[in-house]
Amino acid sequence: MLTVFKEIIAYRPMLVSIVRKELRSRYKGSFLGFLWTFVNPLLQLAIYSIVFPFLLRNNQENYPMFLFVALLPWIFFTSSIQGSTTSIVANANLVKKIYFPRLILPLSVVCTNLMNYIFGLIIVFPALILTGVSVKLTVVWLPVILFIEFLLALGLALTLSALFVKFRDLEHIVSIVTMIWFYLTPIVFDISIFPEAIAKWISYNPMVPIIEGFRNILLYGVQPNWSSLMYSLVVSVALAIIGIFVFQKSEKTFAEEL
To answer: Residues 64-98: pLDDT tens digits?
Structure first.
């Protein structure tokens, strides 16, 4: 595993180059360009803010911000998983022609979406202030929660990108699973609306402490629940280790499968 980290460090210029290229090309030629980074989450925010408070009688205080601070990290998470799943197959020509750590491809997808989330903070903080939420010193814990989410996304990204080379139906399965996962994570609702027995099972979802952590430090200005976050960290580290193992084992047959 130490070899993996050494290779990533050795090829970090390539990783930076791919991420930079993705960020530039994602909106190249479009009228709004970089602004699309903000348009997509804002449209989702508008839809959910109308549907849930009014049609479903959700009385959550400051619901738009309650939703927004959770929706952006969720978009980072699902975009990373869905984009990385096809990353090896999408770069088949590159994989077959030159040597480089193949792990860089799914890693670059996660890094690109991480950067998109960071850019999204440009509108998160002004929006919080405009809606009467004061940004407190607890915001210094934001990188910690982001790191835990990054590890979780990367672990899944490595496993799924490696398995997709052999099992092409996986792309559709991932889309279905992430859709279900969305409603098993307290993004549009607070977990307290569920009966205690159901809430207990939902709390095993590693994204629950992460999403609640974002809300605690950004919306409520309080310390995150460290014991819950420790659970997410353990799961994330375990999935990252499994992801590296699965990827390294599958990497040997990439050229044949592609």
So the answer is: 888 889 989 999 999 999 999 999 998 888 888 88
Copy the structure tokens of residue 7: 């290779």
Tokens of 233: 């960290």
| Structural domain includes residue 190 | yes
Nearest-angstrom CA–CA distance, 64 and 123: 13
- Does residue 52 form part of some domain? yes
φ and ψ of 131, to 5 deg = -95, 15
Which pLDDT belongs to residue 112?
Answer: 93
Q: Which pTM does this prediction carry?
A: 0.89
Q: At what angle do helices 170-183 and 142-164 cross, to 10 degrees?
A: 150
Domain count, the chain: 1
Which residues of the chain have a pLDDT value below 50?
Answer: none
pLDDT attached to residue 13? 87
pLDDT at 168: 87
172, part of any domain: yes
Burial-class residue 54 by CB neighbours within 10 Å (0-12, 13-18, 19+).
exposed
What is the DSSP annotation of 21-75? HHHHHTTTT-SSGGGHHHHHHHHHHHHHHHIIIIIS----TTHHHHHHHHHHHHH
What is the pLDDT, as a whole number, of residue 216?
A: 94
Range of the domain at 186: 39-257
Has residue 24 been placed in a domain? Answer: no
Residue 50 tokens, joined: 């109308």
